[in-house]
Every structure is written in structure tokens, then in C-alpha cells.
Design goal:
Elements (H helix, E strand, L loop, with lengths): L2 H13 L4 E5 L5 E5 L17 H17 L2 E4 L4 E4 L15 E2 L4 E7 L2 E6 L4 E6 L6 E2 L4 E5 L1
Antiparallel strand pairs: 1-2, 3-10, 4-6, 4-9, 5-8, 6-7, 8-10
Length: about 150
């Protein structure tokens, strides 16, 4: 099932008088939709068997929700990302590093000024989202913390 077909189901649901719809896939994944309107006369929805292609879409949505669980440190400016203070130095942090609010995570060079980027959160570095020497834009994710 592709995005267009899923969108069609959502649109059809939105235009119907059904207030709630639940679909259970063969692997145990459940999808439910509920309208935010006043309760109407309840209608019973029949179980729907959905092809495995739709499961991939649901898994992708689940992965996106997992992404939301992380705390993201974003670039406060446009510049060049550096993970360490000098070419021979150790990186400020690596995957698995424990950090506290205020710890230096990296440097973003902007207009020949070296700006130390501090952690906004306590946590553990799960992912470094950019490579050393890479250009970053304002708001680009630099680190994922949990």
C-alpha cells in the first residue's frame, strides 16, 4: 500500500459518518483513527486485511515517532562544524558520551569566529548528525541526545 492509497483511506474516513476506525495488521501492528467531533450513533467497523506494503509505511511512521523521543541540538547559526578544538585534538564528544547542560559539544565557525556550541540538555550522545568540516545551516540538527 502506498502513500496515495493511505491518504485515500484517511480522506474517505474523514468524509464518512464513522467516528472511529481501527485496523490490525497480521504482524500485530494496529492503526486507529478517531474524529474529534461530538459522539454520534456508534457504528461497528469490520476488520480490514491490509497488504504487507502498508506495514512498511506504519513502520516508517513508528521510526519517525522514535526520532521525536530524542533531544536534538541544532545549529544556532550558519557556519562550518568542527567536532574538536584543533586537528590533532580529541573530539569534544562522541557517540556514547554523557553530557550535561552547558558542556561544549562542538565549534561552529562563522565569519572567522569560533563559536562553542553548548549542550542545552543533560543526556547521552546517540548520534553525531554532521561530519567534521561540514557546512551547517541555521537549525540543522548537530546531535541527538537521549
Amino acid at each position: 500500500m502506498n502513500y496515495k492509497e493511505i491518504k485515500e483511506i484517511i480522506d474517505d474516513f474523514g468524509n464518512s459518518k464513522i467516528g472511529e476506525l481501527s485496523i490490525e495488521f497480521s504482524d500485530g501492528t494496529k492503526v486507529s483513527m478517531k474524529k474529534n467531533s461530538m459522539p454520534a450513533v456508534p457504528e461497528v467497523a469490520k476488520p480490514v486485511v491490509v497488504p504487507e506494503q502498508a506495514v512498511t509505511v506504519v513502520q516508517n511512521q513508528t521510526e519517525e515517532k522514535k526520532e521525536e523521543e530524542y533531544k536534538i541540538v541544532k545549529s544556532p547559526m550558519v557556519g562550518t562544524f568542527y567536532s574538536k578544538s584543533s586537528p590533532k585534538a580529541k573530539p569534544y564528544v562522541e557517540v556514547g558520551s554523557k553530557v550535561k547542560k552547558g558542556d561544549i559539544l562542538c565549534i561552529v565557525e562563522a565569519m572567522k569566529l569560533m563559536n562553542e556550541i553548548e549542550s542545552e540538555f543533560d543526556g547521552e550522545v546517540v548520534e553525531v548528525c554532521v561530519k567534521d568540516g561540514e557546512m551547517v545551516d541555521y537549525g540543522k540538527p548537530l546531535f541527538k541526545l537521549k
